[in-house]
TrEMBL record:
Name the record gives this protein: AAA+ ATPase domain-containing protein
Domain DNA2/NAM7 helicase-like C-terminal, chain residue ranges per copy: 911-1104
SUPFAM superfamilies to which the protein is assigned, alphabetical: P-loop containing nucleoside triphosphate hydrolases (SSF52540)
Family matches, as Pfam families: AAA_11, AAA_12
Lineage: Bacteria, Bacillati, Bacillota, Bacilli, Lactobacillales
Species of origin: Carnobacterium inhibens subsp. gilichinskyi
Cited PANTHER family: DNA-BINDING PROTEIN SMUBP-2, DNA2/NAM7 HELICASE FAMILY MEMBER
MF term (GO), any: 5'-3' DNA helicase activity
Amino acid sequence: MINYVIVLFPVLEKVRQDMLDQGIINISPLQYLTNLVNPDRTGMLYNVVNGDIRILSEKYILFCKPADEKNSIKVVHIRKCTTFEYASFISLCEVLPSDCTIITMEDAKYIEKIPNDFLIQDIIKKDKKNDFDKKKFKEFKDYWKTQDIASKLEKEIINNKKIESVTTFSSIQLKMDISVMELSITMEDYNYQVGEQVIITSNEEWESKFRLDYSHMEHIKGIEIGIIKSCDKDSQTITIEPKIQNMDKILKQVYELEEGYLWVSDIGSTVKKRNEDTALKQLFNNQTANKNLKEFIPEVESAQPSSFEMNKMNKKDFTATFATLNENQRLSVLGAINTEDIFLIQGPPGTGKTTVICEMIQYLAKQGNKILLSAQTHLAVDNVLQRIGEEEEIDAIRIGNNEKVALGNEKYILEQRVEELQKSIVSTTKENKKKYHAIEKDYDIRRQKLISYEYVYEKVDAFMSINKNIEKARNELANLLSEINETEKMSASVTNEINYLDEILINSEDILEQIKNILSEGYSHEKLANLSKFQMEVFISKIDKEAIKEFKSCIIRLKNVEKEEINKLEKLELEKKKILQSKAFYTQKVAFYKAEQHNTGNSYESQIITYEKLEHTYMLECQEKDSQIEHLTFKSEKQSEKINDLVKRASKAKSIITATLDLSKEPLVSILGSKFTFKEFLDFYTQAQLFEWKYGKLPENTMDVLAQISLFDKRKKIKKQLDQLQNHYEDLIKLKTNISDTQSQMRQLIQIHISNDHVHCYLTDTNKEFNQFSTEDLTICSSFINTLNEDTVFMGFYNQTIDIQEEWASRMDVYQTSFEEAYVKSANLISATCLGIATKSNNYFSESEFDYLIIDEAGRASSLELLIPMIRGKKIVLVGDHKQISSDVERELMDKLTETEEIDENEISTYKASLFGLMYEKAKSSNKMFLDTQFRMNSDISKIVSDFYYDGKLLDADKIKERSHGLENKLIQSFYWLNTPGNMELYQESKEGSSPYNKGEIKGTINLLKWLDENISEEKSVGVIAPYKAQTKRLEKEINKVEFNHLVVEVNTIDAFQGREKQIVIMNLVRNNPNNTIGFIEQDSRMNVAFSRAQEMMFVIGNTEFIHRNKMKLPKLYEIVAQLRENNAVKSIEEFAKVGQNAK
């Protein structure tokens, strides 16, 4: 155990000197050192590095070696500790015992001397137990060490600026309207700038705390009086614009202050650096919402992979917009929602980053997450909030300065929400009072009517049913009477028709039924008439009938004989044919084997003998068949004699029949036709004979019967109809009686209900008749009952709380901070800039952790700016584009970084790079997504942007391909470079301080705007941009002198236009000088932003010769000009000089 830390004399001397430099007196160096390394007496922090024990404090590192004294170590060296070092090692430290004492060498003489190297060994061994991935930690440490060094240099620059600006003032004069104050000062070397924050103090305060190193400025009570509005070196005065909200306080403080000291203070930068330092310390101490954060920034490869699956998600919680997103947008949303550590989305210009952010926020909010939305700029934060702030599932709070929050979003600021609530309370109290008195007027009367309305409410369905039944009976009776009348008319008409038919019909009903039955079995009228005529008019004798019988018999026997003989002969011929085919087959086989035996010498005797036997067998069968055929032929000759006999008999019978036919030729012709054949006669005779056998002789008046059969059918049908009508009529009469009885009963029931007091009250109150009851009465009753009940509850509540309400209303003149907590608890979307989330002013979330952190424009923020919100997010989503403008490094800081020996060129290069970009390039595919489809730029513009800044990976949405800029008849392309004359002085750049401007390009811009205004027919938004403020200031001045009919023009720097868009953009290149100084236009990110702001048309005004001279330094701009020239899209600026003429 270590009991003593012995401080060597040289170490104490160094501490003493530091104390003198800082003006610290009245305390010994030993006590001062003790207070630093063991401030609360709980023990000293130490770690072991390369065998040395190092004691750590925020100000110093003490380097210790083993001492000869027992249980002691000695401090052999001391140096100052950086914030970064302290943050880096504090989480790795152990603690020496609280009773360990710091002593001098003089005091150490009294301690027993025992070598104690073993003590150091124990400490080193213990330290090894806490070993970790030192290589990974070194990469992590080196990156953040550079950030820490740069941060300290920034603070040094801020402090130096503050010291350099110190001067005295001799008077303060307030203007009449108290809007400004004027100070007489002593101006020396410092150049005071408009917008700088001014702090003053009295001579007494300054001199009482003065230190030569100006360290006292940290402890002086200064007065922030406002910002510099103007500065006059000749009169040695500066004009200050005070903060309106602090006016009373400022006036009170400066009232008796006639002279004193003044300096400028970049309070914003100071607070920013303090918050960045705090974030860095929390990162090193693992005081982060995501405990793995230290592991994956910037070494993002170690982050847990995300997922792009929807399986475990509630699809109903996605908005309708989600289904319209393109593939990479959907995957970005899913990857972000499913991330465990971090997910990065690169969104080039116009690819819908905001839409993607809104989709993920709305889904996460529905899932009950608390979300922090952040960005480097207020504009980016407000852009998202304006899109989704009013959505049902979003309860948003905006943290930020009211003056910087976008118009419309100030309502989300906590103070505004509380103030609106307070106004609502006052308004509600007044409205409640009015409402109470309005209710009170007729409340008692309505209470009396309540029971009637409740009774009717329960009975409405029954009343409607009665009315419905009455109406139904009325309609049924009317219809019934009409039907009875029609039935009577129809019955009379049918009876008349039957009587008429009875007079016409002369045949008996039996004969008609007989003929009708025959017809029903398939006989037509014509067939039946022919059969009747055949029976009546054709004479067939007994002899003729026998002859017909003989003829038919002979013919049948002849057919059978011929058919039998032919069938037998054909069968024999077919069998003979098959035998011959088999015999031929075996004959062929015998010939084949004999030839083979002859040709090859092989013996095939057995095969030959077998096949010859088979051949002989079939030859015998064939001979047998020939004999059978011959026999059958002989037999047929004898059979022919029999056939001849049948033929003779048939001919004789036919002759007899034919003779008879001549006698009945006329009726037969009318039946069979003039050219009927003997066969047709026989066929009809057969039919007639069959008909007679089945039905007997037809009556002589068959022809007349057939003529009246249709009339008979008609009468029978009409008679049936008459019977039906009579039955129906009887039914109708019975039904009429029943309905009349029902009507009578219903009317009696209505009278009973109308006599009920509640029904009578309701009908009188609503001015209705009983037969008017409908579903509307349910609504009327329900509304009356509910309104009265609500009024009853309201009056009871009002009477009980009237004193409280009036008291609350009276208190609403004072801001109620207690209301803030209610909003804070319910909020699920907190929105603030990266720096704003750490502000202590009215910010309940400065120390909060969030389920999800979403940072927009992450590529634009510096590493430490990103770190401030990142330490608060359990799951982190970064959305940005490192190919666009990122945070700039001030020239003064860049000079200091270059001068310092603590970091090398590679580390400076890494420091300048975007943290988002570094991480995106390193991230695995499972932790990032590229939005590859743009919806902003016309194709000519997007092709330049895609080819030169995104390796051709940026694609156009379908709707872009169909877009027109409206000037195609004059300018075919959408992207033009307007070349300025290189040899004219007007188009050479000039300087305002360090900021260049170009008068010729300003003139060319004015001419181009006038030309556009003349040639377009509808309003267009135009952005005029330049890399330098000196140029934009002059552009704005000249443009404001011109009135445009169709153009709405806005002027600003390229940087200010990042994240924005206009239909037409005109960029001034500005640079054109003989020294070939290129400045900002060398930065690809800045040119990418400039070229990608336009939706429809992009114009670049600049000298192409200057680009050509500097093509090694500006390779992309050189290639862009070359590509535009190939497309005939490089024109002279002078083509637009004369308004009224078309561009060539």
